[in-house]
Each structure stands twice: as structure tokens, then as C-alpha cells.
Amino acid sequence: MVLDDRGAQVLRLVVEDYIETAEPVGSRTISKRMSQALSPATIRNIMADLEEIGYLCQPHTSAGRIPTGAGFRYYVNYLLARQQLARSDRDLLHQVGETEVAGADDVVRNASRLLSILSRHACVVVVSRFSHQAIRSISLLRAASDKILLVAVLQGGWVQHRLIEDEPGLTTDELEKINAYLNDMAVGLTLPQLRVKIMNEMRREKARYDSLMRRALLLGSKAIADSLPGEVYIEGRTNILEQPEFIEDVQKLKRILHAFEEKGTILRLLDSALESDAIQVSIGAENPVEELPEISVVSSGYRQGETAMGSIGLIGPVRMDYSRVIPLVEYTARLLSSILEHR
User: Fold this and answer.
1) What range defines the domain where residue 139 resides?
2) Which of 146, 228, 241, 278 is deepest in the core (most CB within 10 A)?
């Protein structure tokens, strides 16, 4: 439903006051902030109309109103005035690319940390497209008597690890030869391409008698038996503890903090942004995790060249300051794409 000017102004002021205070907003508060002179009684009538159509609710009979999820959605869609990022904010975010880092995974981890600091919300970065990156090198390192650590360095500086079980008795010299053999085979291929090549070679090796090469192929097939899993980087979990609506409800707080320990839950929250560079705003009950209706997610996809690599997002209360959070996420996602493109 499209609001008239007075209804839209009252809704905007209620949302902005509630974002700032986390307290129900009364008609006298709005009357003082209105650009046009309206009495508290008139504003109460407007607020009652907004409540009737589902944009406001009254938590207690004697209290003021607070925005509903639908009210926040209308605000974000039609009333939001985005803030311009301060020069100091942009300078801090640009440290993502200036820091001496070992790999692309460090870049996204730094981006998550800096965005969390600036927003005072939890920040999540998802990396999901390792399978699209060509292999620079593969190393198999002895981790235990019966375990070997795979270290795969991918194009763009991504580094992935996997622990695999080995047949005992493989010497250091044999492991070095297997490393050289697998690298000759792997460099320049993506992980799915390498998987196909190894399976083809294993079929050929049945007719040969080189046991070391067979062991090399067997180790290679174990190492990439399935796609390397995506990574999830989370920073600023403790920012959740500073939000009054969560502090006052211990069970709600436990449920939210538990969700941050579940990789699958986090992936579902940011799933809609994986294929899109456009900002995605999921408010309260709109988010894909039904058991977390009290949080909102502002996210965007980021790329490495032409490849969509993952998503970055801020997670906070429905009462988050969208006018600041949306441009922060948008700017960081674009910056991350730019940095990764030139790695």
C-alpha cells in the first residue's frame, strides 16, 4: 500500500527513532520532529492507521509504536536515504588491499573484520567457487604416520587444505616424487578437470606395473574425491551482545549465537547474494532461516574477474541502520571484487 506524504513521514520518523533508541516511539516524539505542524492527537491517528495496515505495532497498551517487518520493508524500499560513506570509512576499507597478505582468503578475512568494525554488526564472507579456479600447485605433506595434508594453491591466491588418510609406509622420497607427478598433471586445470584426468589415468594404470604411480593417483583421487568445501569467515559475533533486543532475551540470544556455529545456516542466510552483485536486503521473517525471524541480513555478491566467487553480508537486528549498512556492504563488495580481479 502506498502511503500519503504525512503517513510516509510519520513512518520514516518512527523507524529512524526506533533504530536509534530501540524503544517504542510516542506521538509527542514524532510531533517534535515533524517538518509540518501536526498535533500529537493527529499523529496518534496517523500511527493508528499505520498500525491497522501492518506497518507499526504497539507492544504494550500504554506504550508507543514500533515498526513491524513490513514497516521496515516499506522504509527500505521507498523512504530510505542512503548515507554517503565518510572518507575515513573508505580509507579503512582500502586497507584490505594494502595489507601484505599471503592469499586471497586473507583478503576476504580482512574485509570481514574491517566491515564488522565499521558497522558494529556481525560480518560474514562466504567463498563458494573454488572449483572455477585453476590450480597453481599441489603439495602433499606428511601430517601423521597414516595421514597426509593436501595443500592446493589456486589461481588468485586461494589456499585450500584437506587431510586425507594414507596407506602407511610411504617414504619422504616417494612422497616428493608423487608431488612432482601430481603437479605436472594438475597445474592449469581446475579441480573438476583434475578429477576427470586422474580417473582416466587410473584406468590406464591398470595395464601398467608402476606401483608408485598407482599410489600417486590413488592419493590424488582421495584428495579431490569431491569438491573442496566453501569457506565461511565470520567476524564480530560479540557485536550481537551489544544489541538491547537480544540482551533482554537470553533464549533468543542463544539461538542466534548457535546459528553462527552452523556453517549451513550461515550459507542459507547469504545464499540469495551468491549469484548477484546487487544488494540483497532480507528483513526479519523474510530471511530464509525460519528459526531466526529477529535478524536481518544485508548482503552482496563479489567476483574474481568474471567468476562469481561468493557473498559478503552484515547480520544484525531488524532494527539495524539500513541507511548506513547498505552503502557499507555495497562499497566493500565492489572493493573486494576489484582487489581480487588484480591478484
Assistant:
1) 133-223
2) 228
